[in-house]
From TrEMBL:
Keyword terms of this UniProt record: Metal-binding, NAD, Oxidoreductase, Zinc
Protein name in the entry: Cinnamyl-alcohol dehydrogenase
Compartments where found: Cytoplasm
Subunit-structure text: Homodimer.
GO MF entries: alcohol dehydrogenase (NAD+) activity; S-(hydroxymethyl)glutathione dehydrogenase [NAD(P)+] activity; zinc ion binding
Domain of life: Eukaryota
Originating species: Oryza brachyantha
Length: 383
């Protein structure tokens, strides 16, 4: 007679908890409940800090809910699975993703969308199917989730729609990058814009996501990749990611950025990517795109809530604007492809990792990012 596997039990572990907006994170002992139906409990090996974590860490009003466990870019190993979970087992190498893919709804079944309509993306304090939190502090009080991932914890519980198996040959730090930043940028060029060989590209903002866009454009065979950034140090850095030309708007005098790009590309870039989150830059990107077929892809969330205003006449001349969430990538089908490209040395990810710290030093990762000194800082759980 077959023996049943023991039911998963609550786990005590350490997590970096944020108790108020903008306050340093405190490493505390917490309790992580077992996974329920359709859920997977993951032992996080390493995680990294993304600008989105910082944005919501600063946020005082809803959806800035506290106390909370941030983190959404990570690599881990499945520790246990809940009922009705198929395709995952203890020991699987996985990355969690903030964007789910149920594989059943009309959007998941279409190549035109990566936005699951059954479990819609939202910045909620819990998991996508509701049912409260899986985290408690030492007093039994609830700790809220972040983007359904909460990877600043040695163990976390994630809905099965937000877990992707990856080749165990992937080094943990680089696998972690596929969870968010690198995939978002590379995907925007590869999946969403579908940059063709020989085309011209302009990238506004050379942070981690912007550099990932450049890397994606390089892989797609773009002939000219123009990086636009106010930081002169990004000129040399950008070259490592495929940037062929660099513009610092402060060095142009009275000349608009759009005019400089139009001159460099003989009419405007085929693809322009805005990776900062400023309406004025979105407008610059749009004006820099070529009449007839120019595409402007918006990756940045407007940091002040300002609307985007663009000339309607230029729309009539064949330009278009596209929004991008997670670079148009369908997590369960496309992340394994990116992992394969990395292992085949087509996609370079290691150059994104500039620093590493232990969980106890997680606030150092915040300082490095806020000071503009790091692209991605790997946070190790066992060091």
């Amino acid at each position: 007679m077959a023996t049943q596997s023991p039911q998963p039990m609550p786990i005590r572990c350490k997590a970096a908890v944020c108790r108020a907006a903008g306050e340093p994170l405190a490493v505390e002992e917490i309790v992580v409940d077992p996974p329920r139906a359709h859920e997977v409990r993951i032992k996080i090996v390493c995680t990294s800090l993304c600008h989105s974590d910082v944005t919501f860490w600063r946020m005082q009003d809803f959806p800035g809910v506290f106390p909370r466990i941030f983190g959404h870019e990570a690599f881990g190993v499945v520790e246990s699975v809940g009922e009705q979970v198929e395709g995952f087992a203890a020991g699987d190498a996985v990355v969690p993703t903030f964007l789910g893919q149920c594989t059943e709804c009309v959007d998941c079944g279409s190549e035109r969308s990566n936005m699951c309509s059954k479990y819609r993306f939202a910045v909620r304090p819990g998991l996508p199917r509701g049912d409260g939190s899986r985290f408690r502090d030492s007093t039994g009080a609830t700790l809220h989730h972040f983007l359904g991932v909460s990877s600043f914890s040695e163990y976390t519980v994630v809905d099965v729609t937000q877990v992707v198996r990856v080749d165990p040959a992937m080094p943990p730090p680089t696998a972690s990058l596929l969870s968010c930043g690198a995939t978002t940028g590379v995907g925007a060029a590869w999946k969403l814009a579908k940059v063709e060989p020989g085309s011209t590209v302009a990238v506004f903002g050379l942070g981690a996501v912007g550099l990932a866009v450049a890397e994606g454009a390089r892989i797609c065979g773009a002939s000219k990749i123009i990086g636009v950034d106010l930081n002169p140090e990004k000129h040399e850095l950008g070259k490592k990611f495929g940037v062929t030309h660099f513009i610092n708007p402060q060095e142009l005098g009275e000349k608009p950025v759009s005019q400089a790009i139009i001159e460099m590309t003989a009419g405007g870039a085929d693809y322009c990517f805005e990776c900062i989150g400023l309406a004025s830059l979105m407008n610059d990107a749009f004006r820099s795109s070529r009449e007839g077929w120019g595409k402007t892809i918006i990756l940045g969330v407007e940091m002040h809530g300002a609307p985007l205003a663009i000339p309607s006449l230029e729309i009539l001349h064949g330009k278009c604007v596209m929004g991008s969430l997670f670079g148009g990538v369908k997590p369960k089908q496309d992340i394994p492809i990116l992992a394969e490209k990395y292992l085949n040395k087509e996609l370079e990810l290691d150059k994104f990792i500039t620093h590493e710290v232990a969980l106890k030093d997680i606030n150092t990762a915040f300082e490095l990012l806020l000071q503009g000194k790091s692209l991605r800082c790997t946070i190790w759980m066992d060091k």
